[in-house]
Design a protein that fits this description.
Length: 102
């Protein structure tokens, strides 16, 4: 899983350097290595946001770090990323994630 995360983040960093790449907004899921609970959020800069979580800059996850990126989706609009975040935070969304993360 760590290798997959590293490769994914490398690809995301490479994509940020291309001027002709569409702007993406990300809905993401982090898992705490401390308590194994999930955190669901959205960002327009996934690499930086994961880094902020792990540096203790996000109040909601500050006491639960380190956090590991376990899932993300790319959306073409901010609105869609926020809608997806809200959907994943529901009972159905968490059940969906549980199935995807097995």
């Amino acid at each position: 899983m760590a290798r997959l995360q590293k490769l994914s983040l490398q690809r995301l960093r490479a994509g940020r350097k291309c001027a002709d790449v569409a702007k993406f907004f990300y809905t993401y899921v982090l898992q705490s290595k401390k308590d194994n609970n999930l955190y669901i959020g959205w960002s327009d800069d996934l690499v930086e946001r994961v880094s902020e979580h792990n540096r203790g800059k996000v109040t909601a996850t500050k006491s639960r770090s380190p956090m590991v990126l376990v899932y993300y989706e790319a959306c073409l609009s901010r609105g869609n990323a926020i809608k997806r975040e809200k959907a994943l935070k529901t009972g159905f969304g968490r059940k969906y994630l549980k199935g995807r993360l097995k």
